Amino acid sequence: MDTPSPASAGSDRTSADTTNDGNDLGTPATSPSSSAPTSPWADLVSQRKISAEAAEFFGDLKNYLPLGCLTFEDFTTSDRGDFGSWQDVTDLPLILGVDSTLPSLVAKLVQAGWLRVQAGRSTPDTRFFIFRMYILPGDAGHRYVDRRDSTLWKALRGLIAEVDVSPEIWQGWCPLGTKRKFDTWATCDEGSLFYMFNKLPSPSPSVDVVEEKYAHEALEDLLDPASVLPGLRTVLYPYQRRSAGLMLQLESFAQLKLDPRLEQRQAPDGSVYYYGARDLLFLRQPRYYEACRGGILAESMGLGKTVIVLSLILATKHHPPVMPPAYAPLPVREKVGKMSDMAISAINRRSLPWKIEFERIRHATGDDMTSCAAKLEQSLPMYEIPREPQRWNRRTILPPPKRMVLAATTLVVVPRNLCKQWQSEMQKHVEESALKVLVMEDLKRALPPPEELRTYDVVLFSRNRFEMEIRDGSDGQGRRISTKQSECRCPYVGATRIRDCHCVRSDDLYDSPLSHLHFKRLVIDEGHFFANHKSTAVAVANKLVKADHRWVVSGTPAKDLLGVEVDTSVADNIWHSTKESRDTVLDQRRAFSAKEDTAGAVKSLGDLATSFLKIRPWCSEGTIERKEADWDEYIYRHEDLRKRTYSGFSTCLRRTLDIVVKTQPKDVERDIELPRLTHEVVRLEPSFYDKLSANLFTLVLTANAVTSEFTDADYLFHKNSAKARYQLVSNLRQSAFFWTGFSEDDVRASVDNSSRYLAKEGTSCSAKDRQMLEEMMACADVILASSGWKAMSRSHEIGLFVDGWPGDSAQHWSFGRSCAPLLTGVSQLQDAQRHVNERASMDDPGEGLSGAGIRAIAPARHETVEEEPDVEGKRKKAEKSLLTKSGIPTSSLEGEPALKRRSSLGGKGGKSSPKKLTRAFKVTKPQKQGAPKRSLPAGLERAVAASPPTSAGVSPTAGTPQSSRKRRRSELEAIDFIFPSDSPYLRSRIIGTTSAKLSYLISQILKYYKDEKILVFYDGDNVAYYIAQMLELLHIKHEIYAKSLSAALKAEYVVRFDQEPQDRVLLMDVKQAAFGLNLSSASRIYFVNPVCRPNIEAQAIKRAHRIGQTRKVCVETLVLKGTIEEKMLERAKRMTRSEHMDAKALEDDGGVREIIQSARMLPVFKGEGEREGYEQMARLEEPQQLWGREGWRETVVGRAVVASPAGGERKRRRTVTFEDITKADENARVVDDDEETRPGVKRRVLSFVDCSNPSVVEEQDMEVDDGSDDEPMRLAVLLQEIVRRL
Q1: Is the Cβ–Cβ distance between 1233 and 1260 less than 8 Å?
Q2: CA 1083, 1086, 1087 angle in degrees (round to 5)?
């Protein structure tokens, strides 16, 4: 055969094919010695359409990439000896002789230089033409090719979809059934985000990849099991060492990574190229970006993320950040510098940790290197960044460069409620002097200047304090200097030419110290909150903080993105995450979901990568790129170049997830084994009053459904009634514990409405509906006949049953007609307990008990307080009038009922707005004079009072006959008093409550609280109040972690409960349980109401079942048998994850709605015996003593310590003092001053106190400044002496 001309440019490529494939391509179709016509580029050069240089570039086939082949059958009868060799072709229509769009597409691309085509015949069957397609890569020919032509891009899209990439066809063989089309779209990465996240490999750091000396040594210390990290008290588990080591490796190892938008593909000839599907981009050479030098620490909840971060900080202590090379030139000196100056300059320029070397010298030789260290401290490592002026003109003055000082400091930003916990963790895991820590939690505290700030190893910010740094560049009024420089236009002063200038001045602007330091790293705890790129915290982090490394610390780095070990924890009885159960869950959630995987967690990860972690190419800040890559555009496989089809994930997402540090559960289990955890659903038999509450809601639902005839807007399940339905169902779920929201008028109104409907003619009411409604009306009559229910409804009290009430005062404390047993409210019982305990030393401690009972029981017997007019309430009531007409009381569509004795701090039992109930949690300052304190639970009382809690943990209450706060001798003598064994008051017992859940819960707490700490999750403030009051009545110390508490109090309560042995019970709102709290001291967990949301429940339980837990953890969920609550729980267990995701609220699920709609009445009486008191209660396992029980003395003394005036003005308080008459001294005299108390008057106290002689105790008047902070302290001293005597 003839030798091909150089213009054919096919011989080199074909020879390469022969070499690469190892086949002898000596056939006529593939012979390297084939001939070809002259190249067309010479004609274009002669016509001066392209330059000779461009013709040479286009003529060289090495500049093109093998793309694939097109095959056509030749139906002509011409001599098939033609095209026996690979020949360049430019005009396919002339060769094929067929009508097709492909020839025109190929012609356009060939003429533009985007494509080269070679033609030949198939070896086994010469009827087939094979056309090899060579494409010009996007990283070549920029000088000669115009890539802005949209018609060419359209032609290329049409062509590549038809190309066959089979190597056999490229070699000239055309066997049947071996065609493989070019995949235009991104390669699909099988799996959902949940699957990929939980299949990430465990950390496996390597010391060899870290070349920098000091980082290499620090990594060795972290990974060596025998090594003790300096300053760390805690011994790290192996998986914790590996996680911290990988974090250090990512920080220290500078590496380049392939652009995640590109994927490597193999050409038909075996060569490799890179393809960007979304941009239709072909590249010969890969495109790299610098890898992220931070990431996401996503270890599962309870596996010690905090100690991992602390170990990383300790390992890199004194390691300064790297000075940017662009701003670290060699200094130019006027004369030869000193050797010390040059050494200091080199140390600072190279960011060497000189303190580490000096410490080694000191240990080796004893030399402290004091003078050298002083010089290095004085010569701060800094660099300058040139500033661009805001505007360029003839008068522009170049602003001075900005100086940045290097600081080996780690900024840690945490939610405010976790700030105290972080401090506690540092004290637990880090030696006292190992880290210098600055805590910035106080909103009024200013940051120290940069020179001082850089001396700290850790600066711990609460998130709201961190956000306050957004003031940088503004004055006290929030004004900033405009970018447009303008003259002052302020008005003149009077008739002068002097302006009364109020313009913003640069001297008045706040200059944040953060903006002048280059930090080592920035760590964000619970960093999923930083996924919102519009948040103030993200703005501060991006605008002010310059840090080498950024880390997000969160077990849930994105919304609903949990570890599989948490999902497998949601089991019925035993929580034990095994490999088999994890694999089962992973298989169930392996497939890509177009609904779950296109929103929520994926978008949150994208926002973190873009706005906070600054991962390229998703963030273009600080680069020469014009714009950042669109996250949604590239991480999915879109099977349309214009639209987003979300057909699955591309490989781009998995390659971006390599910044996540997460250990596989199997590797954690190999290193550590947590105590066993059991979870049991306890089904309780509802009490008589539980049934009444359940039937009331059933009455409401039935009356509404029947009277509205299941249609129109007045039907509760109409689409326009969603808000009212949500509130009613929420109230229904809370009523399973206890509910007093319905009044007598509400019940009567619902009955009257139902009666009118049944009497109406022409309705479509069926016989079944009529019978059901009549049964409900009969049940309402039973409810209205219950004197106990009416009393609790009026007073909003939960009822307690007492047996053995002493004397004739029982009838004055009873809610019902019967006194055997006596039914009364918990607040009333607290008053009675306090009344007797304070008079324990009297001949008759119960003197006046009847009168006290009359006053305490009045709100329950006579509803005499009128409600204040409420314009907003009237408006809301008008909005609900439509539903009210259909049998739904307005009270059932509102929130929880306002608890009269706890909601109003200054009222006398009248109704108040529910907002006041919430407000009681928010107050964190001492109550001002003029607002008498009301009866509050112990946990709530400590939230209101500024004084320390009493040793007994029971906060006193006011509003009793003793509210004058005058302490008499007899009241203190009661401390020494012991009730006689035959005292009738010792025989009084609390035997039950009106709530089955409360009785069971209190019985469990009484059984275990002395040996174990208990965590109670509730949903609804009233539930917390009732439980807290009962615990206060039984003198059990507790705290309330409510959503309305200040963040500072929340943090304090968590630390106190976890560390203080006297704190035994923590009541926590279940909605607040998923934010990084560590409550590993608790080993018993109770859910008062079923959560019905697996993720929320799992995260709540993980607060206790985590590292640090040494006991078996027992979890119980309380449910009432046969109620709607039980059926909703069963339905929630059967719901799939997608069904949970679809239901914004649980009642949005069709199955739950059907359960609510089909609710039926519970039988109230099982027999005649249940009509009496003993059968109506939910009994406690063991009757509890009411008076004189353990801890009552501390309660009496505690009330004396924190008591405050009840009046609106400052008054003289009668206080007991002790005088030592054995050694009389003028400094020991008691001063009785009748002058009015003045602000600022100091307390007059004795110089010493002698408690050895109780006979000299006297009553004296003393001036007291109630605002003094010394009062609790001085009274506490007195209390200590009294307790010592006991």
Answers
A1: no
A2: 140
